[in-house]
Structure formats: structure tokens, C-alpha cells
Amino acid sequence: MDKKEFLKAVQACRRKMNIALFMEKTVSALSIGAAAGILFQAAAFFVPLYYAGLYAGLALFFAFLTAALISVVKRISMEQAALRMDSFGFEERIVTAHENLMKDGTLIALQRADAMRQLKAHGDRIKVPLFPEGKRLIVLVGLAVVLTGLAILPSKTKEYAKELHSLREEIKEKEDEVEEVVDALEQLAQEELTPEQQAEIQDMMESLQNSLSAYHQASSEEMAQAASEKLNYKYENIHTQLSAMAQSMQNSASVSGATVESMETMAQKLREMSGQELAAGNGSGKGQNGQNGKSGSGGESDGQGDGNGNGDGSGRGDGSGNGDGSGQGDGNGNGQGDGSGNGDGKGQGRGTGSSSNQHDYVSIPNAIADIGNLTGNAVDHDASAYFYAQNGLSWEGTHMSHEAVIGSYEQNAYEGIAAGKYPSGMEDIIKEYFSNFN
User: Fold this and answer.
1) Buried b vs exposed e over 316-339: b needs ≥16 C-beta within 10 Å?
2) What integer is the mean pLDDT of 31-60?
């Protein structure tokens, strides 16, 4: 019976000593962790350190984990607990009884009984404090208060860090999106395609890889926005190319229907990603038949236009006379008839249609100067002759409609935007300039 009581008393002291050891190591480690967290939070006032709070939290967590591991490794043994009990005036009775705990004998039994009598009589002497001294606790509480204050104190640098983090997240999403599209195009290139079609898809992939580089270099919201605008243009351009490619492959016996369907699906997905469908759905069209007038003398005009916007149109009419209309007529046409008269149509939007009127043409000289961004053959440009055509002075050479010339310049301009040839901020101005021709 004395053995069990003695062992229970020593184990109780050992348990208190282990708790005290853990508390001491934890307070010390957390003080170090709080100091490290204060350094991170202070640095966030000078550099855009978005994860300063996370780093401070990790410092405290690892400090606590370290304290727990040290407490386990250096846990108190039964012998150390017996020695600690003897330090309260038991004159090594406790440690001697512990050493002979598993032995039997008259003298050993008498010594153990004496130790138990002393424990019962003076057991209240044994005082094992669970918490470290007050100075350490005060230091820890003070560091915790400073850390919390720095964490909640606002600053411009912290706001900038949040904006920069949001920008990086946006860029990361775009990069993942582009990589997904590139992988899809790579799989598409492995289908039954001609070498020319595979080379065209390879060019699409390289163009998108250039967009990845633009996102990597983006360090501001403006640069990311410019990169997104270029990427949307590339999506729309690739959509057009894939649609045309799928259209040309539909009647090919060497290409499976699944390949054509995959290409059409990819093209539609890119159109959605470019945002073109959303933009097209924001206007409210009130009609599809309008007058797309060309200035000319005589003839019949039969035009059809479609677009988004509000306008007053003369509807669709067939008649002989002089017609003068501008732009795209959007609206409900009133009536249908044949007769002579003058027609006037007003509207906004993009008009497409056909007309039997004679067109004004732009004459391209036999030789075009190769200066700056202009390309062509620069020889014999002095030999170009001019003559008076029906609508004015013309140069002898290749004749093209002004729509084709403007379209060519517009295509070159948009390719320049996609390639990043123009200064940042000029893209919208260029797009608006060419949209006015429509």
C-alpha cells in the first residue's frame, strides 16, 4: 500500500513539473514568434507585403509547435520529480525511496514508511508553480498588443499591396486561361489537318504565347488592361480564322465531322471569351431592313443593313431616282412601293448590304513608296498617269473600292495592336478612329 501511495505522490509532482515546463517554453517561444511577427507587420508599412499577417501567424504557430516539441523531448522523469520533492526539505528521503521502489527488505520498508510519514506530514511544502514568472508574461502580453496594433493599423502601402495582390490574381487567372486555350489548340493541331492549316494553328499558339509574356511584364492595372484588350482581339481574330477553316473543311472527305465540330466549338468558345457576344447583346436593334445608300446619279438602290442602335430609316424600297442615304438605318420600315422620288435615310450602326449604284473608287498608283510603315514597290512612281473619270480625277493603276482600302488599313492597325507596336493607351483611339468609317 505504501508503494502505491508513494508512486502516486511522485507522479502528481512530475505532472505539475511537465505542465510548468510546457508553459515556460511556450511563453518564451511565443515571445520570439511575436517579435518576428512585429517585424513582418512593420515591414508592411514600407514594402507591399500582402501576406504580412499570414507570415506573423505562421511565426506564432511554429513558435508554439517548437515549444511543444521541446517540452516532449525534455519532459520530466520520475527521478527528477523525486529530487525536486526532496528540495523542499525531505533530505533525500523521496529519491532514496524511489530508487528502492522495486526492492524488498526490512530496512527498505522502514525507509519507505519514513518517507511516506514525512510526505503526509509536510506535503504542503511542495509548491510547483505552473506559470513562469510575471515578467515573462508581461513581455508576451506587450508584444501581442504591439503585433495586433500594427496588424489593424491602415497605411497606403498596405492598400497598394492589396491592389497588387488582386492584380496578380487576375493575371494568374488570365495566364491559366491562355494556357488552356493553347493546350486546346495544340490538341486541335493533331487532328487530320493539312500542313498549311497546322502552320496556321501554330501561328495562333505563338500569338497567344506572346500574350503570356505581356501578362508576365504587367506591373500595373493599366498594363494588365492593355494586355487584356490585345488578348480579346486575338481571341476574336482566332475565332474568325477557325470558323473559316471549319467552313472550308466541311465538304472535305479527308476530315472527320468530329474534327470540324471540335474546331467550331473552339471557335465559339473563343468568341465568348473575347466578350464579343456580350457586347453585341447590349444594344437594342429595332429592325434589320434599312437603306444603305450610295451617292450616285441614276440607278436603282436596293440595300439591306443590320446593326444595333436607334435610328430612323426609310425601310426597304425599290425605286428609280436619286437616292442619298448615309450609314445604317435601324428601325421599322414604313411601307413598300415603287416610284420616283428622293429618299433620305438616317441612322446609326454598321450597315451591310448591296447596291446596284455605281461606286466611287480609290485608285492605287502603279507604284507605292516604301517609306516608314508603307510597303510596296518604289520604282517608276513618276510614270503614273492620271485621267478624269466619271467622279473626278483618278490615277491610272489598280482600282479598289474605298471600303476595301479602309478595311486593309484597319486590319493592319489591329494587327499592330495585337503585336504591341503602339504606345499604351492608343489602342482605344485607333479602334474609335476606324469605327467611325463604319
Assistant:
1) bbeeeeebebebbbbbebeeeeee
2) 95
